[in-house]
Amino acid sequence: MTGYGRDDDALAALTPALREGYFAGQTVLITGAGSGLGRGLAHWAARLGANVVLCGRKVDRLEDTAAAIGRYNAQVLVHPLTIRDPEAVQDLFSAVAARFGCADIVINNAGGQFPSAAIDIPPKGWHAVIDTNLGGTWHMMQEAARRWRDAGRGGSIVNVVAVTGRGMPGVAHTAAARAGVIALSKTVAIEWAPLGIRINCVAPGLISTTGMNVYDPRAVRAMTRTNVMQRFGQIEEIADTVCFVGGNASQFMTGEVVHVDGGNQIWGDQWTIDKPDYFKVDSIDD
Ligand SMILES: CCCCC/C=C/C(=O)SCCNC(=O)CCNC(=O)[C@H](O)C(C)(C)COP(=O)(O)OP(=O)(O)OC[C@H]1O[C@@H](n2cnc3c(N)ncnc32)[C@H](O)[C@@H]1OP(=O)(O)O
Ligand SMILES: NC(=O)C1=CN([C@@H]2O[C@H](COP(=O)(O)OP(=O)(O)OC[C@H]3O[C@@H](n4cnc5c(N)ncnc54)[C@H](OP(=O)(O)O)[C@@H]3O)[C@@H](O)[C@H]2O)C=CC1
User: Fold this and answer.
1) Ligand 1 nearest atom to the CA of residue 123, by list position
2) Is 123 left (phi over 0), alpha (psi -120 to 50) or beta?
3) ipTM
């Protein structure tokens, strides 16, 4: 199984579920916008009428996304940074303020991990995953909230996480980080409600993106069978949900975790590394 994800022409040929103009007059900031889900989200936000802010570390990929969504005539700001650096995150929000005023919707999509048995994760790898997925997402959340508070207005945050309700064998670092983001989101959904700030999470199951290239193709094939629909999810299926949750269609929703996983959380036994024989069951007689 190769050739994961959708290219720009394929994304442009699809139609968002939400009505045209859903984000009209609003500014949507997307991290990890140079690839995969983030790039799909950039297409969706632009098509739904938003001003779009594209963030990630690699400026060439962000510029590429900006060129691709140029077809929708959206206003676009490209701002490279690592979300792991809180000062860089402050600079990002200042750049957004200078160009568009406050962001209205912040989509914390940047992140990732690598497959490894937990017992073998090196300290540097542990810190890379925790500092990106938990630390970086937190820097973005806190700075967005401070800007909204100081401007005397609210806003909406969507954190892209993962399905953490059960264990995540082979990606313990990300399980810890994403569970942390979910707990953090539920907590500040309460603290920041008086500020008019909503915070929700979207938990994708296995989605076909180029991010899958970090996994053994055999593991990917097996993982596509761990949801009750027996397939990969697609970028547009996440983009529709993130835009719904981020925008006014979900204005009475906060502190929620929306799973878009084909039923993986209720059923599938998902391993990103080889499943030990210990857990293998061939028949109900075993
Ligand atoms: C249960 C279901 C899970 C599957 C569903 C989820 C799927 C996805 O989320 S796929 C899409 C997400 N995209 C990615 O995961 C992208 C690929 N991953 C990464 O880019 C990295 O893993 C990263 C997120 C940690 C990037 O961090 P970065 O700051 O760029 O760190 P480095 O690449 O410099 O690495 C630091 C350190 O981490 C260890 N390490 C990194 N990659 C691997 C690897 N493939 N295998 C083993 N160890 C790895 C390593 O210790 C690195 O240090 P050095 O050894 O000094 O390079
Ligand atoms: N695909 C899937 O099955 C699933 C994905 N997810 C999550 O969804 C999100 C998007 O994943 P996907 O599109 O598949 O994978 P990608 O690897 O394509 O996207 C990850 C993005 O994060 C950006 N990024 C990584 N580190 C940083 C950083 N320190 N600062 C800023 N940006 C950073 C990368 O850009 P750059 O390298 O330029 O910085 C990249 O664009 C990730 O958080 C992922 O873990 C969750 C569950 C399942």
Assistant:
1) 51
2) alpha
3) 0.97
